[in-house]
Amino acid sequence: MNPVSWRQSSYCQESASCVNVARGERDTIVLRESEQPEVILTTTRTRLRTFISAAKAGQFDHIDGAGR
User: DSSP class of residue 12?
Assistant: First the structure.
């Protein structure tokens, strides 16, 4: 993977655990958590947009540890 320019929310505190996002190769989006930057997830704009919309709509509010 080519070097990426990571961005993080301006709401993220200096000592907080934050999600970083960057533009990846071939129209992908890459994500990482600031406390484990070596773990990188890759997705597409469409899938990330769908996930964020579902989270905002509360679709994950009542999921238990078994994924239900």
Answer: S
